[in-house]
Design goal:
The chain is α/β, with parallel strands linked by helices. It is about 50% helix and about 15% strand. It has 9 helices and 10 strands. The radius of gyration is 17 Å and the shape is globular. The mean pLDDT is about 95. This is Enoyl-CoA hydratase family protein.
């Protein structure tokens, strides 16, 4: 299993546990997450879902060993993000490590996100010949526009406090210190109250997903299949600079 599940006092915890590829979004991990979210949605005893990770990486984005071989992969990521957004229960991301590229889309789909001081973030797509196309649908409605322009284009790393300031996460601080009041508040919410309140705060994300999924998934698949992206991903896996950076 790449996704471990546990439950306590109405909170189901889903733990990404694929350390060999830094919790990358392989087809198997995405499928297991879908199943776990569906199970949580159907369980009347689940008040909220906490999404976290083992190791020093929350999610490294696309599994580059699979990238380009499956033209439907961008749509698979969109479906996963949509499953998080549409889940009638709040989803809280707890990050204590690195988040890259497509992993930021998974983070952005969550309703609340907490990150510790060891966390780092980067939109690395432009450096690989790609673009944060499909993940932009759940991120741009949340992010400060100037910050999005800078980090989408430069691929620079930034920390938890910057992430909170730009709207990528909710709280910067050690999860053990800041998570308690959040989970207590969610446990006090009624199932109906939480579901209907979530519908209000996710309405714009769903409008964007409805409007742009087809175009941006096709764009992402085209970019992944391009020669430039092949060079970028190969260079990354070989730990060398791509041709355009020499």
């Amino acid at each position: 299993m790449l996704v471990r599940r546990s439950s306590e006092q109405g909170i189901t915890t889903l733990t990404l546990d694929s350390p060999h590829n830094r919790n990358a979004l392989s087809a198997r991990l995405v499928g297991e997450l879908h199943d776990a979210f569906a199970e949580a949605a159907a369980d009347s005893g689940v008040r909220a879902v906490l999404l976290t990770h083992t190791g020093n990486t929350f999610c490294a984005g696309a599994d580059l060993s699979e990238a380009g071989s499956d033209a439907s992969a961008p749509l698979g990521l969109v479906r996963l993000m949509r499953a998080v957004v549409e889940l009638p229960k709040p989803v809280v991301a707890v990050v204590d490590g690195h988040v890259r590229a497509g992993g930021l889309g998974l983070l952005g789909a969550c309703d609340i996100a907490v990150a510790g001081e060891k966390s780092s973030f980067a939109f690395t797509e432009a450096r690989l010949g790609l673009a944060p196309a499909v993940i932009s649908m759940v991120l741009l409605p949340r992010l400060d526009p100037r910050a999005a322009s800078r980090y989408f284009l430069t691929g620079e790393r930034f920390g938890a406090r910057e992430a909170a300031g730009m709207g990528l996460i909710t709280l910067a601080g050690e999860p053990g210190d800041v998570l308690g009041p959040v989970l207590d508040g969610l446990r006090r919410g009624s199932p109906q109250g939480l579901a209907e309140s979530k519908r209000l705060v996710t309405a714009e994300l769903l409008r964007v997903l409805d409007r742009d999924t087809e175009e941006l998934a096709a764009r992402s698949a085209r970019l992944f299949a391009s020669e430039e992206a092949h060079e970028g991903m190969t260079a990354f896996l070989e730990r060398r600079d791509p041709a355009w950076a020499r």
